[in-house]
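Methods: holo model generation. Sequences were used as deposited, without trimming of termini or removal of tags, and paired with ligand SMILES retrieved from the corresponding compound records. Each pair was processed once, and we did not select among multiple samples. The sequence and pyridoxal-5'-phosphate SMILES for this entry were:
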Amino acid sequence: MTTYTPAPRDPNQPPVRINLLSDTQTRPTQAMREAMARAEVGDEQIGDDPTVNLLCARVAELLGKEAAVFLPSGTMCNVAATLSTCRPGDEILAHPTAHILSREGGAHAALGGFQITALHGPNGQFSVETFRAALHPRTRYEPPQTMVSVEQTANIGGGTIWPKSVLDDIAEAAKDVGLATHMDGARLLNATVAAGISPRAMTAGWDSAWIDFSKGLGAPAGAAMAGSRDFIDQVWRWKQRLGGSMRQAGIIAAACVHALDHHVERLADDHANARALAAGLAQIPGITVQQPETNLVFFDPAGAGIDGAAMVAALRQRGVLLATMDGRIRACTHLDVTRAMVDEMLGLIRDIVRGA
Ligand SMILES: *Cc1c(COP(=O)(O)O)cnc(C)c1O
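and the model returned the structure below.
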């Protein structure tokens, strides 16, 4: 039996100068560290940490919900959401590329006994028609369908933005048949900044939604999930059960508050860098690139005579870190990626293709 363990830093490789592996690679800025050092703190587990409470109030307001809860990770948001909403044997509907299906260690089956039915469609999204077609009658034969989950943005779909109209239609159709609606908002604010739609409008109609602070927002850890007061009460039970209750978590929450104040509007810079990267890649003969909508750029160099894994290895030799994901290379722009780095990486890729 093998257990996946990420490779440690390889001493035979040059240091990483340009890191497009993920927006999780951001390091807290000096200003963020100072905000953390200044944070007022208390015992989060008994509701006594003022900075965590402030953050939760901010997120509830931002997402237009009654309440919010701070959790250590986005994965725990998803897991606590399904555990709070579904019962063993229940069916959750989600896209096959969804994080809950492919990247949470089977948590929803292992801990909840839920089955996830894949709803297919291009770019990590499914249509309201596909959703409706997957609904089945409530008889004793079929698993009870209790939740539909979407990912805004759709990560493996290409960082694509679900149109608000589609989200509204799916939420309405779900309400009609009594399904709970859950939004994995690991990169929700990338979507809202790029689309020019407020987060509360984007999540209206969705029972639960969360944002991740450890992705493009640049905090070292933390996620916050919002919903009705009843739902958040249930999530608190699971936060406790799963070991997600913390103590002086205000140190982390201060980084998250700082991110809300300083790192949201600037996500537009990451999107501009992603577009510049995609435009440069598209000019290299043989490289196919998916037009980015946010900060993720998926491309395939196979047509240039070099496969994705070989390209990733060649770039790593030159101090650039990224990886393949589901068969293509994913480059992710973020706080610590400048336009100059994008241009330098494009030059390196041109050299590699020329030598291939
Ligand atoms: C990263 C990610 C998660 C999980 O968030 P963590 O904070 O890494 O646990 C969930 N969904 C999507 C779409 C993600 O990209």
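The chain has a mean pLDDT of 96.
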